[in-house]
# Entry
Amino acid sequence: MFERLPHELLKFIISEISIQDVKNLSQTSKHFHSSTLPTLWTSVVIPAWSTKDTYGIRIDGFPLDRLVFMKSISLRFVTENNARACPHDRRLQTCQEANDEEIVDKLSSFEKLTEVILALLEKFEKEQLTSFRLHLETLELDLVNWPHLRKALGYRNDNERVRRMRARDYMHKSILGLDIHSPHITFPNLHTLVLSHVPLTATLVQSINFEVLRSLTIRSCPQWYDFVLAIARRRIPVRLKELELQESWPKNDAATDETEDGDPTEVLLEYFQGLEKFYLDQTGDMLSKDTWENVCHHSSTLKRFVNHSNFYNEELEVWTDLPDMMINERDKERWWDDPTSSPLYNLDLDFIGLSCEPIHLLDVLNPFSKKDCLKVVHVRQSRKNLEYTWSWGIMVITDDEPVDDTPAVDEGENPSSEYLEPMFWAFVEWAFSYKGIKSLEYIVFGDFGRPERTSRGNLLICREGYGSEDFHIIRESCPSPEWDYVKKEYGDALRSCPSLRSIV
# Structure
């Protein structure tokens, strides 16, 4: 009877179940075997389980008729401690100096990797690859460590020209096949673009059909401001629904906050309307209040908003979270006394993520106590930040004295010596009280920028029901249906703007 389901309904069911269930379903009948092929072969992983295996990877038995379903090929190798790793890990930059043998095995293990990939690509039909860019719908490009790659190409900086070509122009011409002298739309059907550590130029702007593009992610890309400002300067029609922007420093070639056009993010936000999701990781001196006022330009459509604020600690020489998000006491008092005076009051959000110490959250989120929309609050403290300061969410009690004024954070059934940090507890208690945010269902704490890892320091606080003041706390290290739901429904917002960054 199940086999008589319409194809579209079966396709929907397959998309909603786990990949393991899809595999099991594919083995029940020939009908389900053929129906599940596109899902099962969307992503292919090529593993290498030792240094020797990278020389002996064979693809002779690869089912060539499955190539038509493939959208991504991932590579995995094994480190010396037998842990799985990924070549996109930013820590791989250290292996270039061979000064950290524990991070990755010897580079010689990758000598044959190119040959393996090329052998696989040769199995595609003639012209199949060259036509991809015309039909390409999703493009993700991560150069991992642009300064090192730039040096390997023979450039000392981004402004230097080799054979009359800048490094970023070389990348666009060689990798993306763009015509830097006569740019035109190269990717007419692209609806999702994810760029990480990729040097950007106005040429790339002219190569994308922004009337088709719906999701744009820019993470720590050199000259990102040129790309962003070019969109507004050229009056390009934009119909984006999702935008993730992780600013990198400097914001312009002069290494200052000031540009001739104004703050690039502000310019872009005011240029168009219609965003449903906006995830922003800021650098520099832009006040959060000003950012929120700019975001209100999308108030009629915006449902999910993340704002992570950073500053560069010159003493430590690292980027770290800005715990007060440059919010002054006078504004906080005004928002508490009159919630409608806050820019956030104008936003009908169901999700908000802020890199804000809990001591500020009561005032900042008080506007949502007068609304009936907000379901999830994510308190973002990056793992990097925890290397230099204390946890905003959890405190550890070293003596045996019981703590009565804040709840314990247990490890499943096991009692714990860790408790909610008092100011975080005060926020949680207020948020779930009758004076707080009645629509709120979950408070999430922690850093989810590395989804392949779980952390016992990441917390999920679940309300027992609408308007209830009761709740329970679950660590990420304790699997639960609540965690599964939150990660599935809000995972893109939780993972947005990962904390690893550098000066570019």
In short: The longest helix spans residues 481-495. DSSP finds 16 helices and 19 strands in the chain. Residues 2-121 form one domain. Residues 78-85, 87-110, 254-258 have pLDDT under 50 and may be disordered.
